[in-house]
Amino acid sequence: MQIKAVIIGAGNVGTHLAIALKNEGVQILQIVSKTMKSAVELASRMECSFTTDLQDINLQADIYIVCVTDNAIIPVLRQLQIGNKFIVHTSGSMGIDVFYDLAQNYGVVYPMQTFSKFKDINYAEIPIFIEANSPENQQMLFNFVKKISPHVQVINSQQRCMLHICAVFANNFTNHMCTIAEMLMKEHQLKFETFKPLLRETFEKITKYSPSISQTGPAMRNDLHVVQKHIDLLAQFPSIQEIYTHISNNIIEMHKKEE
Amino acid sequence: MQIKAVIIGAGNVGTHLAIALKNEGVQILQIVSKTMKSAVELASRMECSFTTDLQDINLQADIYIVCVTDNAIIPVLRQLQIGNKFIVHTSGSMGIDVFYDLAQNYGVVYPMQTFSKFKDINYAEIPIFIEANSPENQQMLFNFVKKISPHVQVINSQQRCMLHICAVFANNFTNHMCTIAEMLMKEHQLKFETFKPLLRETFEKITKYSPSISQTGPAMRNDLHVVQKHIDLLAQFPSIQEIYTHISNNIIEMHKKEE
């Protein structure tokens, strides 16, 4: 029997999840989004109906997947009238407890990846972390999620939140370090492209060995003259100067402990 | 005629440079290192002589390449007695001015890459930035460096220093963000390996598009509740908490400007 799903939220997470589920034979019944534009866009791609009004939600689905920003989860749950239907959210940072009093059968599906509308994703490679309110729901959710990725793990809300913090460091902050480099390069008429071989090597070392044994650079060498020179040269960018200082000190501190 | 080189310093940079030069037919005459162990190791790999005493330097080379840490460059130059022989250093942060009064023919060769003794490097892909004290020396250095990489660019000391700062952000700091994630994961009995697909996607987005358009995450979405929750949860690691705060604020600040 084909499983039917309603996707609530048509942002990056909702879009990629809907595509992956449809590809694996799940019938997407409806897209619910607060903006008409994203509702229409994703629904036409899914060949399904759409609405911008939570009151018009289709009640025939087996699972309701909430893919909205964290702040919107509780407001959305409060407005939803879906009885004892199974419902999940997809947030890294919100606990399973947001469902208390607002649902009877519920869980969490947290796909650990960075989603951008402009770039396709191979869902089969993504680790997905789940949690549910009963062993039966957990088993059901496990089987459902297994359709789109073989890498499914059950973890609790505390672990998931820590995992999300770590993902912020490993993805959002690494990306921002490069944004800073890109900005400084532009300011000095240098090309960011130059960094591609360095970035490839960095990525290879981190994934093949480990980041702690791959660390290099002036802070790692405890070369305080160079660190200070760099800090001085960043004077016209106070926030970036502060970031440089804190990270360098943390590298020095962390690698001293190891010696 | 085969070019002859002496390498001063047998650390990561000296080792990889010596290997690349030898592979391209440069004759490595001698390895000079302050520690006997690294001198012997690299010299045996280069099939050449070695010394730990700068007074015993071989005077038959065409070029002397100083691959020591920044702090050691001036002390090394002060002890060297090589007359008007051509000498270069390989530092990103030291200006060409360190040679004033200490040499007659000089320059800088800055290979922008992260070098680890445990990992081989394909030098042909590395961008190398050079500078010299005269147009003739610059041309000579350009031809010499071209042997090991087609990506040779002439830049001045100020540009090179900014490039080095950017390389610290793009490599050392991205790596450290992952070290922090690895440490936090370990503390919570979670595996860092889980991050490989996320890291691959991050690397692909940064290099294929650009870091500024690839940014995602709670700070980018201006989701201050999640940012604050993460900051609170990092209370037991004050330095990491501080780093999280500063980088998140900088992401918010930088991407606000763009709107």
Could you characterize what this model shows?
The structure is a homodimer of 259-residue chains. Chain A contains 9 helices and 8 strands. With 259 residues, the first copy, chain A, is α/β, with parallel strands linked by helices. The first copy, chain A, folds into 2 domains: 152 residues, Rossmann fold (3-Layer(aba) Sandwich), CATH 3.40.50.720; 98 residues, N-(1-d-carboxylethyl)-l-norvaline Dehydrogenase, domain 2 (Orthogonal Bundle), CATH 1.10.1040. Chain A has an 8-stranded mixed sheet, with helices on one face. In chain A, β1, α1 and β2 form a beta-alpha-beta unit. In chain A, α8 packs antiparallel against α9. The first copy, chain A, starts with a strand and ends with a helix.
Shape of chain A: elongated
What percentage of residues of chain A falls in helices of 4 or more residues? 40-55%
Residue ranges of chain A: pLDDT <50 for 5 or more in a row?
none
Query: The biggest beta sheet of chain A, please?
Result: 8 strands, mixed
The CATH H-level homologous superfamily of the largest domain in chain A: NAD(P)-binding Rossmann-like Domain
**CATH fold assignment of the largest domain in chain A:** Rossmann fold
